[in-house]
Amino acid sequence: MKEVLIITNYFPPEIGAASNRIFHLAQGLQGQNYKVSVITPLPNYPKGKIFDGYKGVFKKTTTEHHITIHRLWIYASNSKNKLKRLIAMLSYSFSLIWFFMWNKLPEKVIVQSPPLLVAFTCMFFIRNKKRKLILNVSDLWPIAGLELGAFKKNFSYKLLERIERFNYKKADLVLGQSEEILTHITSLFPEKDTFLYRNFPDFNPPILEEQATENGKIKMVYAGLLGIAQGIYKLCTELNYKNIQFHIYGAGAEKEKIEALIAKNPELDIIYHGEIARTELHEALLKYDLTVIPLLNRIYGSVPSKIFEYGKLGLPMLYFGGGEGENIIETYNLGWVVPPTNYKALNLQLSKIELNKLNHQFRSQIQKTALQNFNFEKQLVALVKIL
């Protein structure tokens, strides 16, 4: 049986798109007759604290879903302090180096990037001619950090650029989750082998049923990280609630601000449901008419995995993030697009959407399109051929 190792910063029981994506990749490869092992930190995301059941250990190895998982020590932190975040990444990097020193690694290794520093540790310490290194790039750092305002073009940024280029150069194959990522990489290394590996979900599609309409308003939902990049607090303050009721699921940095806003402004038709498990969330999302996918800044190379997940659920989308995601929504007729941060255009678009158009027929067509074009198994089989 062929062996493959996946090195990642996120893995269940942590929640979120990154964790789900890598778990599905690991499980999918295991189903393709690979013996899969995973190296990941002791679970700590997004709260920045080691989960109960994993505290007080340097390393914990388990077998779950026939996958061997090595969880290594990390200095857990979700602090905004850049030094603390650097220490957290360095701590995991040191744990990886320790693991590499004492364990034999398979000939095929998939490394998740970002974080750049963790990816660099892997590419530097385990590169050799006999081992095939596959770099799985889900976001373009440091470019994304620059666009988000997290970085400035200074010495540190130039150092990150050098690390980024080193990682691409040493990779035998680069997987990119968007066309923009692959375009960027081949502009730097034209001969580099690349593969478009989208963040397609792997779950059984639900049977869609007719939805009962209440109070004549569109029930719009957001589910996911309540972080700075998503701008959900700002969205709450800018929406016109005349024709919509806004439902929110998730947790993150803006959670308390959103809860305070709702408490102080009961006239705003916002309902915050907290954080629930992904399987429960899928069932809950089927009750809504429309979902919004917002980003405060258009981030080059980024395509939210929600597009593919919601497509499979048959949920119409209002995309508010720009970039390649816009093209996917329009190409496959999954909903509507509005330029990011243009709240006037957003409210105008919402006023034009007729509730009766968000019907069973439209939802079924979205789901059918997603099943045909965002197929996890087909993509996985194509990937296995080039590994």
Tag the structure with descriptive keywords.
alpha/beta, Rossmann fold, eight-stranded mixed β-sheet, 14 strands, single chain, 2 domains, six-stranded parallel β-sheet, 387 residues
Task: Write up what this structure looks like.
The protein folds into 2 domains: 2-197, Rossmann fold (3-Layer(aba) Sandwich); 218-373, Glycogen Phosphorylase B (Rossmann fold, 3-Layer(aba) Sandwich), CATH 3.40.50. It contains 14 helices and 14 strands. It has helices at residues 17-31, 82-102, 116-125, 143-148, 155-170, 179-188, 232-238, 255-264, 278-285, 306-313, 324-331, 343-352, 360-373, 376-386, and strands at 2-7, 34-41, 59-64, 67-72, 108-113, 132-137, 173-176, 194-196, 218-223, 244-249, 270-272, 290-294, 317-320, 335-337. Strand 5, helix 3 (116-125) and strand 6 (132-137) form a beta-alpha-beta unit. The radius of gyration is 21 Å and the shape is globular. The model has no long low-confidence stretch (mean pLDDT 90). Residues 231-367 form the Glycosyl transferase family domain. Keywords: Transferase. Pfam families: Glyco_trans_4_4, Glycos_transf_1.
